[in-house]
Amino acid sequence: MFTGIDEVDWASLRHAHGSAADVPGLLRGLASADAAEREVALDELYGSVHHQGNVYDSTLACVPFLFALASRTEVQDRAAVVELLVSIGAESAGPLARAAVRAGAEAFVPLADDACPGVRRAAAGALVRFLDEPARVLEVLRRRIAVERDERVLPALTAALGLFVQDRPAQAAGAVDLLAAQSEPPYAPGIRLAALGQLALCAPERLPDDLVPTVIRLLRDRSGRRAAGPDRTDADTLVGRIRRLRPSDEEGSYLLRTLHRALDDRVTDRIALLVGQLNSPDAMDRCNAVWMSAGLFREWRADFSAPVALIGAQLCCEEDRLRDAAVSVLAELFGVAAPAADELHALVIARPDLWVHAWERGRPSLGGPLKALARSGDRRAVPVLAQLLAGSVVPGGLGFEVVRLGRAAAPLAPALRRRLGRVPLDSPEAAELAAPLLTALTALQDTAAVPEVLRLLRGAPAGLGARDALVGQAVRTLDALGTAARAAAPVLRRLLDTRHAAVAAGALWSAEGDVDVVLPVLIRELTLGRSRSARTAAEQLGRLGAAARDALPALHELAGSGRVWERVAAAQALWRIEGDPEPVLPVFRSAWSQNPYTRGAIAGYLAALGPAGAALHDLVTAELAAARRHTARPGGYGSHDIAQDERLLADCRTALASR
């Protein structure tokens, strides 16, 4: 199987870590009789010749030998070799890699009938991806489905049929018929679920009318038939760690992920499916449901109170995996997690050991249950946060979560001030330590914090990056404290000729209200051409109101020609200075469509405009009617998007209520 391997000049080839001279040894390691050696060899190959999905000249040189390994029955773990070949030939890896695997694709045909179930399972999808003979591929799948008895392999054959339909729509009819047949008895519940998921993706017209009740019933049947598998003993390698992170019921997770992806914008059906899953007597089904819910919540808008409450009910479960999954999802929901607040509070009170998460390296962070409770806005988090603030070590990020509690967190202000006063100014971590505390004190507008904030400004570390981060946030805190920050005026004036000029000018305006000092600085920053400074200057000029009329020409120019965020900031300043919405509303309309991330700020301005913003109420009405969150991305990534989107919706409702 290694014929010719020593004739390859591996030393001249490259992989992620340099010379590929070590690759022959790794390939031979895949054929070892020792399981640990095989695992390490596979781990090293993924980390070198296929690092992060990349392909190198050494990767292409490996392909013939990987095919040889996969075809030799005496080689153990051949399924993993086939999976590596499939990954190397993925479209994302590039045309050369795909062509290299396609050139050997004939080898996948006998592997589809291999005695090893794992090999058959891996070969099913490989056939569809790489063998360029559609009729033959479909016939192999049809024959294999007719004789296959291993319920670990049948779902892979079903997934291969779905892939066939998507990749070869012109020849899809036969594959769709096979899927429809698999969705009915006498096939086992898991196979029927897999077939329904594939039909939902590629032939929704073939789905039953009672899809959700059918799926829930099949899930219950599948759970009743599922036998508990052996505990995992994966090696301590990259591949082993990835395997340990997979759900305990990986097949069930895949089935549900496929169904949810296929249902996509059928949010009502997806909620009903989640509710059915979360009411399952089987803990694995409930755990899968919890993880599936995260993408739905992040991507779509709906009344999620029923599934959120049921996720909260999982917090009392004795299974750590299920409880931890529920906590992880709830911590991303912010105010949407409110229906689970009672259960979160009960867990926080019952398990003080979960208040802080102690990482192996680095500072401890706020524990998931307490973070989720605080983010939901529940005031019952305040006494627990107070206890942590009184301790010897404050979990990183605690102050960021205080913001979500609003004025209910006011009793925490003295402890936050004391902590801020203890930040070691000579530490390279001073900015990181101070940031969450400053954020909390800013939100609470704690005027008694001026001395501690001034201490930071006067003693900020000399390192440019650290000093800039610390100074910028400290000045913003002073800005929020208004006239109580008068004592900081001399320090703020010294910052008017630095990169912090615009924000310092705003803080000075809040403290003293001296337009003669502040206005020239803001006009200068507005016209220097630095994007962030111009945006900040425009925002500050809007606060000056009519006193900033001298800035109108520059603001009009920026509103018409600046970058999108600069235009929005300039437009709001024009409205606040002139009181005329007519030149402002077209800028808002354009930015709203151009960059969805501006909608939160614009909706806030429209809520403040009241009836004067009526010309843009069509945008607000359309936003409230939209089912998808305004910054949703494929897969529903981005947890903070939920909080931002909920705030946008609240401001949209306020804007409409004022007309």
SSE topology sketch:
Layout: E1 14-15, E2 18-19, H1 23-30, H2 35-47, H3 57-71, H4 78-88, H5 95-103, H6 108-111, H7 117-130, H8 134-147, H9 154-167, H10 173-182, H11 189-202, H12 211-225, H13 238-245, H14 250-263, H15 267-278, H16 283-299, H17 305-313, H18 320-330, H19 341-350, E3 356-357, E4 365-366, H20 368-375, H21 382-389, H22 398-402, H23 413-421, H24 430-444, H25 450-459, H26 464-480, H27 489-494, H28 501-512, H29 515-527, H30 531-544, H31 552-561, H32 564-578, H33 585-594, H34 599-609, H35 617-625, H36 640-657
Antiparallel strand pairs: 1-2, 3-4
Helix pairs in contact: 1-2, 3-4, 3-5, 4-7, 7-9, 8-9, 9-10, 9-11, 10-11, 11-12, 11-14, 12-15, 14-16, 15-16, 15-17, 16-18, 19-20, 23-24, 23-25, 24-26, 25-26, 26-28, 28-29, 28-30, 29-30, 30-32, 31-32, 32-33, 34-36, 35-36
